[in-house]
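Priority: medium. Attachment 1 of 2:
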């Protein structure tokens, strides 16, 4: 009799547990369905609401019943409009958010002492809308231990467009988040061409420190005591140099050409040389020809190929493209001079295919979800 009672109690407990699990699953499923209905509603009514139609604005306002709804609406706005807004769209959306009370809620959330991610997300949306923010307060979130908060703060600072935060943003996202160089370059490009003078100054500092220390330590070593990594770039920091060079090339910032030529003369890092060659080719800097021609005989086949492409771009001559390219039979595993980031990446026209090369693209690199090693010395071509 006792055994039967124990079995009955055990079955009852299993039933209760199963009922609890079913209720939880139903609640989660119901929340997901509700969010889907909200997204369909926002997609349908946002356009008319921006046009000033009261009924559409009323429907959007009624859908924002809780903080979770407003947070979901934030995500929807970023997904719906993309990484940046046109001036007209920003103005219309800013007026709508103020009318709905979302702007005041975001300001309060940013000012409130709470989770770094909540504050950074609010700052990102406010900056996205073009609302006034103190960049110094946003920059404090770059030191957060939460990588997602660091990325959100970086997005906010790039939207604010203050180029003085270029290097702190790069150092924060590269040291504290899993973003790749490709993704970092795409994010930093949102500072716009206004950041080019700041980047040029940072590159000139690299040239100065490289000249004063002609025998650098192994790339990736710690910064010298005399350098503050938030204000200057170590001549051994290949990653930072690559991003800066690619951005100058992407914006076709011709005033940087003399500094890039100087860095090409003194840089001991082959990866930096590869990006400098591509940048000078993108800038079509004719004064770089005397520096590029000797590279056609460089030991590294990637440098030879990029030098040929750069010379062809500058001189508009196809003959330079075939001057120093290695035959396909010699591109086997025995070539020890391959670039670690462009190994085996040869395009069908004989040019080196280099992922994330802003210098030769018409659009900035974006993303950041790609896997990357823990070694901070990694660099793409």
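Attachment 2 of 2:
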């Amino acid at each position: 009799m006792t055994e039967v009672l124990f079995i009955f109690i055990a079955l009852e407990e299993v039933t209760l547990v199963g009922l609890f699990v079913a209720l939880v699953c139903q609640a989660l499923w119901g929340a997901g369905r509700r969010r889907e209905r909200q997204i369909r509603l926002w997609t349908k009514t946002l356009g008319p609401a921006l046009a000033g139609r009261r009924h559409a604005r009323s429907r959007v306002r009624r859908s924002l019943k809780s903080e979770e709804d407003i947070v979901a609406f934030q995500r929807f706005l970023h997904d719906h409009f993309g990484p940046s807004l046109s001036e007209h769209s920003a103005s219309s959306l800013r007026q709508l958010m103020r009318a709905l009370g979302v702007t005041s809620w975001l300001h309060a959330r940013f000012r409130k002492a709470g989770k770094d991610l909540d504050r950074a997300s609010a700052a990102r949306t406010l900056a996205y809308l073009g609302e006034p923010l103190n960049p110094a307060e946003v920059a404090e979130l770059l030191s957060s231990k939460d990588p997602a908060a660091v990325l959100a703060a970086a997005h906010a600072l790039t939207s604010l467009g203050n180029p003085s935060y270029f290097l702190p943003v790069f150092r924060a996202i590269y040291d504290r988040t899993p973003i790749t160089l490709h993704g970092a370059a795409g994010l930093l490009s949102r500072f716009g061409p206004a950041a080019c003078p700041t980047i040029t100054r940072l590159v000139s500092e690299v040239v100065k420190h490289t000249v004063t220390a002609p025998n650098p330590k192994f790339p990736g070593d710690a910064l010298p005591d005399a350098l503050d990594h938030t204000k200057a770039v170590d001549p051994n920091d290949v990653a930072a140099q690559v991003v800066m060079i690619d951005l100058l090339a992407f914006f076709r910032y011709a005033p940087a050409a003399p500094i890039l030529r100087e860095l090409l003369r003194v840089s001991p890092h082959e990866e930096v040389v590869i990006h400098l060659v591509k940048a000078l080719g993108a800038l079509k800097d004719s004064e770089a020809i005397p520096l590029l021609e000797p590279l056609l005989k460089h030991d590294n086949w990637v440098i030879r190929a990029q030098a040929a492409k750069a010379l062809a771009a500058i001189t508009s001559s196809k003959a330079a493209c075939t001057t120093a390219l290695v035959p396909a039979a010699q591109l086997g595993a025995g070539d020890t001079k391959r670039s670690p980031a462009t190994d085996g990446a040869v395009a069908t026209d004989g040019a080196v295919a280099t992922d994330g090369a802003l210098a030769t693209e018409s659009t900035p690199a974006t993303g950041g979800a790609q896997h990357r090693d823990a070694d901070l010395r990694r660099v793409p071509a």
